[in-house]
Design brief:
Blueprint: E1 4-5, E2 11-12, H1 21-28, H2 37-50, H3 55-68, H4 74-78, H5 82-89, H6 98-114, H7 121-127, H8 148-159, H9 167-176
Antiparallel strand pairs: 1-2
Helix pairs in contact: 2-3, 2-6, 2-9, 8-9
GO biological process, one term: base-excision repair
GO molecular function: DNA-3-methyladenine glycosylase activity; metal ion binding
Binding site for Zn(2+): 13, 26, 183, 187
Length: 198
């Protein structure tokens, strides 16, 4: 299926066609380049939590995730302990998955350690795996869910202590964070990678 035209007359990737939060996310955030460590850490975390769930579920819970994980401040989350894990497991406003919560803490610590390579090391590591030839899907059938680059990124992060960063999750991260333009050819948002991030 190619882009579909919404009630506002704009062509979009089919999943962002209906009016509501998913359309807003599609139009203003998906595929727009991130900036700053906490923004990258937030997206890395939310993509991990999304595994096995719908993005609509995670998007609806994003404000609660931000509250629960100290605004995705890497230093703050890296300092969380076993008591914080139990607090988060009792928080019905987020997705209560112990493995994903513990992975978030481990990833925060890994991100702190990664700063030995510079303050923007996490961002540079992800961007270093951008494809030389970005995908240009015309239909949903042509869209990928993984790539050699996402596999390489997954391996690179795992060697640095990150968890819950499989190649499919990393492909979703690369799409969402504007590592390449994920929109279908013909979608009005294609080419929005250079917009100012939220």
């Amino acid at each position: 299926m190619g882009p579909t035209t919404g009630d506002d007359g704009l062509a979009r990737c089919p999943w962002g066609d209906a009016a509501g939060p998913m359309r807003t996310y599609h139009d203003l955030e998906w595929g727009v380049r991130l900036a700053g460590e906490s923004a990258w850490f937030e997206r890395l975390t939310l993509e991990a939590f999304q595994s096995g769930l719908s993005w609509a579920t995670i998007l609806a819970k994003r404000p609660a995730f931000r509250d629960a994980f100290a605004g995705f401040d890497v230093d703050a989350v890296a300092a969380f302990d076993a008591g914080d894990v139990e607090r988060l497991m009792a928080d019905a406003a987020i997705v209560r998955n112990r493995r994903k919560i513990e992975a978030t803490l481990a990833n925060a610590r890994a991100a702190v350690a990664l700063r030995e390579d510079g303050d923007d090391a996490l961002e540079r590591l992800v961007l270093a795996h951008a494809p030389d030839v970005p995908p240009s899907p015309r239909t949903t059938e042509e869209q990928q869910t993984t790539s050699p680059e996402s596999l390489a990124l997954s391996k690179a992060l795992k060697t640095r202590g990150f968890t819950f960063v499989g190649p499919t999750t990393m492909f979703a991260l690369m799409e969402a964070s504007g590592v390449f333009d994920p929109h279908l050819v013909g979608c009005h948002a294609r080419g929005a990678i250079s917009r100012v991030p939220r």
